Structure formats: structure tokens, C-alpha cells
Amino acid sequence: MTHMDTSSPALTKRVVYDDAVVRGFVWASVAWGAIGLLVGLIIALQLSFPQLNFETSFLTFGRLRPLHTNAVIFALVGNMMFAGVYYSTQRLLKTRMANDLLSRVHLWGWQAIIVGAAVTLPLGMTQGKEYSELEWFLDAGVVLVWVAFAANFFWTLGIRNEKNLYVSIWFYISTVLTIAVLYIVNNLSLPVTGTKSYGAFAGAQDALTQWWYGHNAVAFFLTTPILGIMYYFLPKAADRPVFSYRLSIVHFWALVFLYIWAGPHHLLNTALPDWAQSLGMLFSLMLWAPSWGGMLNGLLTLRGAWGKVWGDPVLKFFVAGVTFYGMATFEGPLLSIKAVSGLAHYTDWIIGHVHSGALGWNGFMAAGLFYWLVPKLFGTKLHSTKLADYHFWLGTVGILLYVAAMWVSGISQGLMWREETGDGGLVHTDWSAVINSQQLMYVARSLGGGLYIVGWLMMAWNLVATAMQGKAVTVEAEVVVTNLPEPALPGEPRTLGILFSKPVIVSAIGMLAATLFAMPDIALAVLGLVLLAGVVAFSAGMLFHSTHQGKHTWHERIESRPLAFSALTLVAVLVGGVYELIPGLVMEKEVPLAANGEMCVQPYTALEIAGRDVYVREGCYVCHSQMIRPFRSEQIRYGAPSRIEESMWDHPFQWGSKRTGPDLARVGTKYNESWHWDHMKDPRYGQEYSLDRNLSIMPAYPWLFDAAVEKAVVADKLAVLKKLGTPYTDEQVKNAVADYDAQAARVVQNLVTQGKADAQAHADSEIVALIAYLMRLGRNLEPAGGKSTAQGGK
After folding, report:
1. Please, are residues 210 and 129 in contact by the beta-carbon 8 Å criterion?
2. What is the bridge-based pairing of β-strands 189-191 and 12-16?
3. Alpha-carbon distance 239 to 276, whole Å?
4. How many CB atoms lie within 10 A of CB 180?
């Protein structure tokens, strides 16, 4: 309801939209996307042809894989997201972005960060945390650029000419706020040097924080902003209104509240406490409802317009993208069930799941957006609709081939790892034989990825040709100003009143109920269930008995108040984050003590810290886990299940998420120093690799034998770790180099005794430090720096 005099002419303004920044983000996404996808194809081929590692440090799988993931997430999808946000936000708010300088800082600052990542990651400058590998100096850049983006976005909300916020803006608000919280918390660290830092969290704390971030980076960087783009561009392309406004409300609030809780489902069957695992599984299963609600809202928007889909490549990509979103969000909760995760985790099934979302949902939404957007940005028609159709079918076949190959490979791996003989032994004891049995699937994966890349390159050529046949357009529009001050209606609450209104209170009770239901205490869980049932019943009553005869609904009121809307969104997000993280972050570390009062879990020595840094730098964590799950098959293969305190001094944690190679949690008790020496020099021991031979696909690391450890910073590393809670004494920090040399001499002596006479010339080399670290794994409950007791063998 409004008190404006409808007989008077409406107030209008002339607005010139800033589409130059949109064009910049579009071209950046197309170009970086091609690079990121090509790197992905290279590392896929390296798993079938390890010769493609070229025995060169910056071209190995372990260093290129983080480059691929960061390029696809932050360069391809990130730039695409920003293009869609800048274009749609200006139209939805009927105003130009508030500050052109901030828009340019965002555009060029983001590209500078991507260039920094493209240089530093192959050089091994990494924090070693998935989707969060960038070192501290680039993290600082990300924060500064994100602040520029956020300031510009919220400033634009403040000067908008449209009173109410459309659903797309809701999703953008959640992204801007939540990514800021996630990125800052997960990347808290202390620098050691200009290019090296250690994260603030360690062990299980780090695992919980990392996957709180990692899962919700998928949620609030790869999902919510793309849903906002869907809600704007799909109706535009179909020339139809969104199917259901109410469903979009339920979709938004349920998604932003539930998603943030689900991170622990990445850590099922690990040493993480059961309550945290159950919490992640429970909320992951609940995500089925809002995710599919959003998918159906998108697809049903096409009611009456399905006839357009066949002839319109934009709608083809949007429909397929939304469908892949539905597939990925069905598979995600399925994989969060403990029994299913027990089979799928660490296998190629997870790779297939991730790529169905990244290539199908994000990649196809990007293609649909670009095919719709570029002709409008350059005042022309798409150069070739037929070429866009070819792109669609190549991409679709490529994705399906890729995902199907990974499903087959992943399920096969999971079954083969646990298959037992009649007398209780393992059928498949040769790890390389299990991996190489799936080489047909790996080649099929590479073929599918290759088809997808060909389609992307066809799109790039088509978009460039489209731009060349037109010219950059400056769009001016006469807009009606509806965001005018209005006298408050009798009884209408102001912003503070809205924050404490009945729907918010009911929602708060619902959040409390969900929290109690997730508690390990059965009485609290029952209380939570009762409260939750009451909230559902009350909400249903409000929904079915509400009337909207000339009155503002509560949600329409907060849509006209960005501050209140943003505050409620932040609360919905933080509730889950606080409950999930705070117990692990504030508790004191309880270090198990032996009968003589000494710590059972000794911190790593100076030499072992140097070796662990080499391990992280080379990306060993992307192929090897250090977490033995409590399964009989894993105990037979690796040893006793991992205990939570074993990794308590790990900055970062090394539990891993993929096993292209075997678990290394107990590898120090399995092989001696000379075995590691030979294995790192030549994993195939002089034999030529081919697809039909059961040989290791691991790259060789010859540079480790020549590169010397920078011992000048060894003491600095221990000093920083001491500040972060590792119990080093001042004397250990002071004597770090001397202790390093003493232990290195023992490792070299063991190597010489085991027949490696040339090891004496490598006492200061990185290979000695790495071997010391690998020999420590599985002995975290023993005194550090002890003698070798493992046996040799291949």
C-alpha cells in the first residue's frame, strides 16, 4: 500500500548503466576459463601418461591440480558471476553502480590475484588447503578486492531507485556477506617469510574449519550467486515471470540457513567426533528440499515456453545447467550418508560429483549467460546460433562421458579396496593394479573433458565474432523512481521492529530447535524435535491463514529494507557457523601424557617440519590421505585407525580428500629410508610406463635431491608454530638448526647403512628432510627423531 498521489506524474530519472565493467568480466571469464580447463585436461592425461609430468617441478600433477581448481572456481566462475551481478544489479535497482573506481578496482584487482595464483601455485607457494591454497599475501589482496566489491554493492543498494529488492539481489547479498566471513576465518595465518605462512588452526580444528569453508565456498560462491543469475536471466531469456515468488522465499532462507551446517559431511568416518559428523550428515540430507525447490522453480518458469528451448541455445544451456544443479544437489546429500560416503570417499566418484556441478551447473550457466549477454553488450545478434548448438551438444556429451566414467571408476575403486578373500585377507593388495584397472575410465574422462574444452573454445570464437560484428553499447534508460520516502503507516514496524517481529522470532526458535536436535545429548535432541514440529505447525498455520488484501506482507517489508534483510541473512548464516566451529576452536588442546608425564604426541622436529613443508609444496596431499578410517579393510591395508590427537600439531591438517595413491598415515612404519629414496627418484624403478602395466603413475621428483633446504628460516618456522600453540620450548627454537643437522646426519647414516652411499652428499637436501617427515608418519605416539625400524621393500 502507498500514499503517493497517483494523479501526479511519476518521478523519473535518466540512468546510464556501466556495462564496460560487465564486458571486462565476461572476457576475463572466457579467457581464464579456457586456460583453467586446458590445465584440467593436462592433469587428467597425467594420470594415464605420467611422462607428461616431464620430471619438471612446476608441471607436476600435485602443483597443477590446485591451479586447475582455482582457475575454474575463481577465474571462470568468479568472473562470470561478477559479470552477471553487475549487469543484473544495475537493472534491478534501476541505477548505475555507485562508484566507477571501485568497479575498476574490483575488475583489475581480481585479475591481478588470478595472475598471482597462476604464478605462485606452480612454484609451490601454497597453504596446502583445498580451494584455499593461496598464500597470505594473495589472501590479503583477495580481502581488499572483496571489500571494494562489497562497498560498491551495498552503496548501490543505498542509492537505488527501485524500492523492493528482487530475489536475485537476496542471493547476491548472501554471497557478499558469507564469503567475507568464510574466507577471512579460514585463512587466518601467521607469516614466516614473504612467501610462507602457517594457518592459525591445526589438526581436527583445521579440518573442521577448512571444510566449513570448502563446502560453503561451493554454496556461496558457486551456488547462491549463480542462483541469483538464474532468477534474473532465465525469465528474461524465456520471457516468462518466475514460477513462484513464495517458493523463491522458501528456497532462499532454507538454503542460506541449512548450507552452512553441512561442511562436516566431508569428514565422515574420520577421527572427527561423531557429533560433528552426524551434524553434517543431518543438515546435508535436509538440503535436498530447498535445492530441488530452487531447481523446480527455475524449470517451471519455462511453463508455456518449452517450445522455445529447442531453437534457442541460451535456453538450452540454462535448462541443462539447472538440471545439472538438480543432479548435483541430489548426489551431494546422497554422498553425505555415512554408508555411501564409506564407499565413495577418496575415490573418483567424488571427482565426478564435483565436475557435474562445476561443468554442468556453473559451466553451462556461464555459457547461457554469455550467449544472451554479449549480443546485448555489443548491440548485435549472436554470430552463429548453429555453432552455439554444436557447443551445447559437445559439452553435454563431454560432461556425461566424464561423469559416467568417474562413477564407474569410483565405485569400482571403493569395492576393490575393501574386497576380502575367504580367509580374511585383501584380494587387491597391489595399489597400482587397482588404479590402473580403471585406465579405460581415465582415458574416457580425458576424452569427455576434451570435448567440453572444444565446445568452450567454439564459444570463445563465436563471442569474439559477435563482438567484432557490433560495437560496445552504452545503455541509457528512463527509470521510474519508486524508492521514495513514505510516511509510516499506523502499526507498521521500523527496521528494528522488523528484526524482532513474529516471523523472525519463530525462525529463531526454529534455529534453536534445529541446533538442539543436532546435539549429541538425546534429551536435548528430543526437545529440539518437539520445538521443530511446533515451529513447522505454527508456520504452516500462518501461511494458510494469511491474507494479502491490500496489506504489505512481512517479507515485502524487509525486501524494502536492505539493512534489515542483510542483518537477517548474516544471522541465518552465522548460527550454523558458530555452532559448528566454536566448540572446536575454544576448547583447550588435551595432550595425552605417558606414565612418566611426557607428551605422547610429540611435535615435529625442525627437520620433519622442513620435510612436511616440502610435502605440502609438492601437492602430495592431493593424491594421498593421512586418515585411516575404522573399516576392517583399511586396518588390514594400513594399520590401526587414525586417532584425533595424532594430527594435532599439523598446520595444515593432512587428512586428504582423494586417494590416487595409498594412505600415508602409517607409512613411516612400513618402509625404510632407502625405499623412500628410490621411490622419490623413480617410482617405476627403471621400467617404462604403459597403460597395460601395473606400475605407479606417480611423478618422479629428481629436483629434491639437488635443492637445499633453507636452514636460515628453520628457527623462524618453529617460533611461528610456537605462537600458534605448538609446545616448543625456547631452547628448541634456539637450537633448531643444530637439532636439524643432528637428525639429518642420522637419516643420512641410515641411508648409507642401507646401501645409498651417495646420500652423504645430500645431507642438506630437501629429499633428506622429506624422508625424515615420511618416516615420522605413524609414529606420532613415539618420541620424535628416533631410529628407523621400518623394513625395505617395493
Report:
1. yes
2. unpaired
3. 45
4. 17
Q: Which pTM was predicted?
A: 0.92
Amino acid (one-letter) located at 1 = M
Grid cell locating 782:
613415539
pLDDT in tens, 597-636: 555 778 999 999 999 999 999 999 999 999 999 999 999 9
Q: Which of 727, 734, 710, 737 is nearest to 606 (CA)?
A: 737
With the C-alpha atoms ordered 341, 216, 571, 209, is the resulting torsion angle positive or negative?
A: positive
pLDDT in tens, 283-320: 899 899 999 999 999 999 999 889 899 999 999 999 99
Least confident piece of the model among 98-112, 182-196, 483-497:
483-497
Quote the cell numbers at residue 650.
599439523
85: which 3 cell numbers? Answer: 551481478
Q: What are phi and psi of 12, to 5 degrees?
A: -125, 160
14 strand-pairing partners: 478
What does the chain come to in residues?
794
**Residue 587 corresponds to which cell in the numbers above?**
576448547
Tell me the per-residue pLDDT of 1-39, one tens digit each, with 9 for 90 and over: 333 444 456 799 999 999 999 999 999 999 999 999 999
* Structural contact between residues 680 and 767, judged by C-beta atoms closer than 8 angstroms: yes
Q: Find out whether 687 and 769 touch, Cβ atoms under 8 Å.
A: no
Residue 420 has phi, psi (to 5 degrees) of -115, 155
Spell out the SS3 assignment of 205-259. Answer: HHHHHHHHHHHHHHHHCCCHHHHHHHHHHHHHHHCCCCCCHHHHHHHHHHHHHHH
Residue 518 is predicted with a pLDDT of 58
Look up residue 476 and give its amino acid. Answer: E
pLDDT at 455: 98
d(CA 214, CA 222): 11
Q: What's the CA gap between 445 and 515, in Å, rounded?
A: 41
Q: What does the alpha-carbon distance between residue 586 and residue 604 come to, in Å, rounded to a whole number?
A: 23
283 within 8 A of 268, measured Cβ to Cβ: no
Cα gap 243→609, rounded to integer Å: 57
CA distances from 237 to 247, 300, 484 (A): 20, 14, 30
Using DSSP's 3-state secondary structure scheme, residue 178 falls into: helix
pLDDT, tens digit, 9 for 90 and up, residues 120-162 = 999 999 999 999 999 999 999 999 999 999 999 999 999 999 9
| DSSP state at residue 76 | I
Instruction: Locate 624 and state its grid cell.
Output: 594421498
460, 461, 363, 472: which is closest to 22 by C-alpha? 472
In the Cβ-directed half-sphere of 735, how many Cα atoms lie within 13 Å?
10
Spatial contact of 624 and 664, defined as CB atoms under 8 Å apart: yes
743 Cβ contact partners less than 8 Å away, ≥ 6 residues apart: 605, 606, 607, 608, 772, 785
